[in-house]
Amino acid sequence: MDRLQKVLAHAGVASRRGSEALITSGRVKVNGAVVTELGVKVAKHDHIEVDGEPVEIEMPVYLLLYKPRQVVSTVHDDKKRKTVIDLLDSKISERVYPVGRLDYDTTGLLLLTNDGTLANELTHPKYEVDKKYVAKVQGIPTNDELKQLRKGVKIDGRMTAPAKSKLMSSDDKKKTAIVALTIHEGQNHQVKKMFQAVGHSVMKLKRETYAFLDLQGMQPGDYRHLTPEEVKELKKLIAKRQKR
């Protein structure tokens, strides 16, 4: 269940404050009764009216998807390629959309939701939500190159924020390496460009974690609902960053 003003805002009736004004002025009914208090919570089955017009309720949905390769992180694709929405079954009737993006050839953890407020907060760099990627790169990065990634490198004319980097393994014969890189920004193709900046092109890339969330027990193409505790933890993480 969610607060009435949040549901109205999510349905596009008005902003959160505007929805609060509608409620306190007596213009909103829930199941036929006028509601003027802001603490009222509603569920999906409740009937809401504003000025006599019914409001379609779409309750918040939070999904964690293991994105496979050759799938685009959009709702629609002009080139008719498979999208992440195509991976969901008919049980998901709400209009969800991806939180940020993963490249067409990148695999890994992608969140989908219809909660616009949380989606915007999770993708905004000021909240510094960590995302860990594991990349297979050409060549074996030196300690100095890994240190460069940690300090930040220049891509597209600006320095990236400090990151975490770790050499996981290397293959001297094939001259390739597996490197973990944790960032909290989300520039276009950022991870690939960061490795390119230190002289290593990315052959394969996977996002393994998003904040405290991971892909444990999942296969490419699988998805699951976040638990209420996980949603609460994400919101708590954002709230903690807001207080800094």
Automatic annotation (TrEMBL):
GO terms for biological process: enzyme-directed rRNA pseudouridine synthesis. Residues 2-67 form the RNA-binding S4 domain. SUPFAM superfamilies: Alpha-L RNA-binding motif (SSF55174), Pseudouridine synthase (SSF55120). It comes from the Bacteria. One of its GO terms (molecular function) is rRNA pseudouridine synthase activity. Its EC number is 5.4.99.-. The keyword RNA-binding applies. GO terms for cellular component: cytosol. The keyword Transferase does not apply. It holds the Pfam family PseudoU_synth_2. Signal peptide: none annotated. Keywords: Isomerase, RNA-binding. InterPro entries: PsdUridine_s_RsuA/RluB/E/F_cat, PsdUridine_synth_cat_dom_sf, PsdUridine_synth_RsuA/RluA, PsdUridine_synth_RsuA/RluB/E/F, PsdUridine_synth_RsuA/RluB_CS, RsuA_PseudoU_synthase, S4_RNA-bd, S4_RNA-bd_sf. Belongs to the pseudouridine synthase RsuA family. This is Pseudouridine synthase. It comes from Secundilactobacillus collinoides (Lactobacillus collinoides).
